[in-house]
Amino acid sequence: MVKSTRHAKYELYYHIVFVPKYRRSYLTGKTRERLEAIFTEICEDKGLELAESEVMPDHVHLFIGSPPKNAPSLIVNWIKGISARKYNQRYDDRVKWTRSYYVGTAGSASKGAVEQYIAEQEGGDK
Question: Catalytic residue numbers?
Fold first, then answer.
């Protein structure tokens, strides 16, 4: 769904994947439930839309919608930094994330559809 700010219309979604330190498989049970709640809390606080989340035993998948003012790297830093801090303050077991991550963009149109649209616009001016 297209959203808007005062000066922009947008539909930006990011697929974010990251792993715990040493790729250990411990994100299960209560840890998983707690992390999902924390991810939801962070997104609400930062004005992001958490469209989907899946916490696997050894990695996390998030599908997050954001206004264009937030860079993907900033969103990842918020999610990873705040989630680790909140989790470690609230619970006895610890969560640590690696510095690396994957982020991919998604929206309502594919790359091919946008390329075709632009090509058609060029032909319409002649």
Answer: 117
